[in-house]
From TrEMBL:
Protein's name in the database: ROK family transcriptional regulator
InterPro entries: ATPase_NBD, ROK, WH-like_DNA-bd_sf, WH_DNA-bd_sf
SUPFAM superfamilies found in the cross-reference section: Actin-like ATPase domain, Winged helix' DNA-binding domain
Annotated family: Belongs to the ROK (NagC/XylR) family.
Higher taxonomy: Bacteria, Bacillati, Actinomycetota, Actinomycetes, Micrococcales
Amino acid sequence: MAATTAQGTPSWLGAVNDRVGLAALLDHGPLTRIGICELVGVSKPTASLMMSRLIAAGVVEEQGTRTGTPGRSAVLYAARLDRPLGVAVDLDAHELRAAVVDAAGTDHPVVRRPLAEDPAERSAEREIAQAIADACAAAGSDPDAVRTVCIGIPGYVDPGGAGELFTETLPGWPSTGLRDRLEEALGRRVLIENDVNLAAIAERRRGAGLDHQEFALLWLGNGVGASFDLGGELYRGTFGGAGEIGFLPVSADAGALDPTARSLQDLVGGRAVAALTGGAAPTAEQLDALAERIAHAALPLLAVLDPGCLVLAGPTAALGGAPLAAAVESAIRRISRWYPAVLATGVTTDPVLAGAREFLRNRVRDDLLDTVARLAVS
């Protein structure tokens, strides 16, 4: 049995330095020995030893030389990104999208595959296995290097009990035990996350939430949902269902805008918006009418959280853009006592997949960095 390396010993200190050095390469790209010294705060001999150990461990490689500076050409060291890997998956009722994720967050190709409408032709295990194969083929990656899969779904899985799946758009998928079944079939760790939560992660990392301490996200697409970013952490609720607001009943005032609407889904869901706008970009008059509906849909979020920022995301929000966000902000102030800043989504292309890639990148990165710690105690 391998002995555990005690803190403070040379081996432990070496592992700490190696991990920091590897992290620097992931964060900054290829570096020379001098660059590593400056970022990590070690001597040149120590940097050389670190890189030698990491190369021997198979997690770092020499990547040419840097020229154009006084003296001899300097060797460039780079983190190896070919393993471990992850695959991010995002799917709705009609299409599956997937991409390979490495520890540096490289922008690998996105693959798309239409999904069968007949539940008899659907299989969670088969669809995700195919997504892994397609994504790896597009990226030129080895599927055997994929350790983790992150799946964004239009719904959520109860984290307790039998892991019940709550969704209406994944026909043929098991209603209980989804994660266990996928992990057994795929032989990989599986993370299942609500699609709107992943969209919020994308907004936090690269979109409208970037400069805000906290924000609520209102998703407007075929479905209606919400997500809550509190200081950079998602609030999912005890059973994973925080933000499932689509089937909340409309208020009397909201019902006056559309007497046929019984729920927020009826008020601002995909069918309601298409009926209002004819499926095209809204005119000025339609924009104001849609904004008032959205303002009413946002009131439950504002009453519970009182966020300083409300981000409008999803296909409807992307179509309306900044003019729709401005109109919603005005409508909220007109019909309520709240006055959040309302911002249009900053992630208009595959926002759920973008969030899944960000979510998964941190886990792949941890897997790679943990390799150093495991080597230190082996």
